[in-house]
Amino acid sequence: MNLLARFNSSLTYSIAATLALVTVVPVALVGFDLARYNREVLTTKERKTLTQQAVNLASEATMYLSAAKSRLDGIARTLKVIPIAGAEVHAELLSETAAGFQRAFLYMQIADLKGDGAFVRDPQLSDEAASVLSTTLAAAHRGALDGKATTTLRTDLPRNYSSVSVIGMPLENLEGEVWGSLTAVLNLGPIERRLQESSSGGQYSVLFDRDLEIIASSDPTSRGNPIALSPLVADFRHSPVRLTRLYQDPDGEDSLVGSVAPISFNGWGVLVERSSTDAFRPVRVMLVRTVVVSAIAGLVALGLGFFLARRLIGPIQRLDQVSSEIAKGNLTVRAPVTGSAELAHLASNFNHMAGNIEALVRRLRQALRQNQELFLETIRTLAAAIDAKDPYTRGHSERVSSYSMAIARHLGLGSEEVFRVRIAAILHDVGKLGIREGILNKPGGLTEEEFMVMRQHPEIGSQIMAPIRALKDILPGIRNHHETWDGRGYPDGLAGDEIPMVARIIGAADTFDAMTTTRPYQKASTLDFVLKKIRAMSGTRFAPPVVDAMLAAVQTGDITPPDAEHGGPAPQQEAS
Predict the structure, then answer these.
(1) Domain span at 537
(2) Residue 504: other Cβ atoms inside 10 A
(3) Is the pLDDT higher at 46 or at 61?
(4) pLDDT(574) > 50
(5) Which among 286, 271, 276, 283 is positioned nearest to 202, based on CA atoms?
(6) CATH number at residue 504
(7) Does residue 517 lie within any of the structural domains?
(8) Can you tell me the distance from the alpha carbon of 78 to that of 80, in angstroms, rounded to the nearest whole number?
(9) Is the pTM of this model over 0.85?
């Protein structure tokens, strides 16, 4: 049984489902509405938080880079006033600058036009890294000697090194003549560490240059790669201003909340973003809890609904079962008087009604039996009146009725059909009331003219009984019981299946009784002889199924002729 059919089949399911519905729907609606509201609040809060973080990180990076540039500018201004000094003075100046700025410079050098000068090198700069930077430092020195200040990013240092910025500045005298260069390697590791420190809860932060290459990142593995061109970064590229928005991840299916802030003096930018999965995790937790609470509330409501419904519906179901039994005809059952006062009162009234119906049906059945008995007595009286006209066939109608009923039962007919066969068989010769007694009681054989008169009795009988509407169904048995299977019978010359079943049965039973009883013109034949003749007439005079049913009834003892043990020849003419 599917869900809808089960829902409609019992009030129990309807009550339980309704209770669950009114419990779950409000909880779910409130929970989902709160989740929607919290998502909006979290979106606003997340945008503000990321914007503030992007601005703070950009400010810190700007301050770090500005401070480094200021240190280098200070050295350049100092050497402009005192352009020529010894290598020791230059080395001391570089050492003080490097030591006073949190060891941000990994390498610093002052060189004249010939390349001679002084340098300082941080111990953390390995020979391998210095070798990688040598070409960039040489290029910065040459650019400075040409009067150009250069800044070159290197993100490809050996493992465990952060990105660095190689800076080259020309050194001039008071006349504006370039006499040397100041080159430095600025460590961008502090900016990267700050990005990593700020990246909690799934946040991703990067520092990128004007070419959108990642300089520093909370994920060091992405250093040196081009930044993913999200809608936010694309807009920043065209207009480097502070931006914050929700957008689709270009490298995935998740959505992101991001904010970008510019570093004004060099065109760099800081991007801070977080996936909506992480940003809205509290909302998802709330949704999950809403679903769980709704499910638990629904189950509790269903359980309570079934419990209450059973208490309410139980007496009604028992009342329904009792009414079904009464509908089937069992009028003795009664409903238990239980449950609430209303249900108990209903059951009591139902039992009282059932008792009245039982008494009424009992009286109706008694009246029906009396009417049937009266009807049968009337039929028997009429049959006795028929037999009284022909003393030689006394009891013939009752015997034919008995034989016909036995044949009908062996044919598998229902009780109502058997009853109609019984009545039709009793009245099958009612037409003899219209035949002269001289023909009926003639001791010898009938003449051809007398035989033709005798053949009129089936039609006369049907005319006699036709006005009685209650006997409409038995008229075919009266009119057509002398029809034969091969179509040679009378009065209508019917053949095969055209002959009504009741007439086929009565015709066989009528002939069987005529052959097994003594008449003025014959003696009763032996049972074996009669059965042999009946079997031989199967398919010509009688319907084969009727013959088979008759033989079975004789075999079981349901048909027992009274005079069959007295042997005699078979009748030679129609005498029944």
Answers:
(1) 390-556
(2) 29
(3) 61
(4) no
(5) 276
(6) 1.10.3210.10
(7) yes
(8) 5
(9) no
